[in-house]
Amino acid sequence: MPHQDLLFDPPEPAVRPARPDPDQLALAAQLPASLRLGTSSWSFPGWAGQVWADQHDEATLAREGLAAYARHPLLRTVSLDRSYYRPMSAAQFAALAAQVPEDFRFVVKAPAMISDGAQRDAGGRPVGLNPGFLDPALTTEQFVQPALDGLGARIGALVIEIGPLPGSLKADLPALLQRLARLLDALPPLAPRAPDAVIAVEVRDPEWLVPAFRDVLKAAGARYCLGLHPRLPPIEAQLPLLRAMWPGAFVCRWNLNRRHGAHGYEAAKAGYAPFDRLVDPDPATREALARIMRGTAAAGHPVLVTVNNKAEGSAPCSVAELARAVASDSAAPGR
């Protein structure tokens, strides 16, 4: 009688990974282990042939695609954006962690209930100030602790993205900085549960980018999350802040191509879908990023860079080009 184990035929996964590209496998082997590239979320049907072996709808990919995504040789992190719209439980985080290898890292966005200065109606219009904005207890209970309990060592960065602020809040930057300092000082430590994880703060208003903001982050051991978005100055203008934060981990979210302007998300989405190719290549930004990534990784610090489809047209294509830039001599520091 056949052994019982031989009678078990494991089910075919709902989403199969694309066949690895030999060039990308070789490229991945050239990258430092501490350097992780990825995308903003993963539920895009247009990535068939690049990330997925077959065509699937968005709902199937959102539910079943992460394990296949994590098999791609260059995708070793992902920006978990769904946590922005609704807090996630430890069990939900744990279910995601179970689908990826041990060396995979998540970049997790804080819920809007914490990071948005405004209360909003069902259409997203501001209707008043948010009483939970940067609240330490709420941030711990609804964000940091569930992530620690569910993701553990697979946390790369917990990102508090402070969106465009109401004028009444933005008018008093010292008060905002005090509020941010109180929050960061009150958060539980990430180690030893997540020994290489960091708290990172991303902003959408350029008024934040002053020395006092840097001082608040450094005092709390937090990092600046470089946000590449038209609402902010270009990467070259943000380099002084990054240099002032040295040394430490580098966290970046490349969100939207500058050609679309501060409110161009929907235009980019319409123009770039189905996100299967580069439409607006931005080699200058890639080269600048590559220099920072190489220098940070060479000094032994973690690097986490995630790319949105709206940056150049296809996040997996952007990741491949970024990896080539990092591996190329043309991206060497000081060139």
From TrEMBL:
Q: Which SUPFAM superfamilies match?
A: TM1631-like
The name of this protein is: DUF72 domain-containing protein
Q: Where is this region: Disordered?
A: 1-20
Signal peptide coordinates: none
Q: Pfam families in the record, alphabetically? A: DUF72 (PF01904)
Task: Provide the organism lineage as a comma list.
Answer: Bacteria, Pseudomonadati, Pseudomonadota, Betaproteobacteria, Burkholderiales
PANTHER family under this entry?
DUF72 DOMAIN-CONTAINING PROTEIN, UNCHARACTERIZED PROTEIN YECE
Annotated InterPro entries:
DUF72, UPF0759_sf
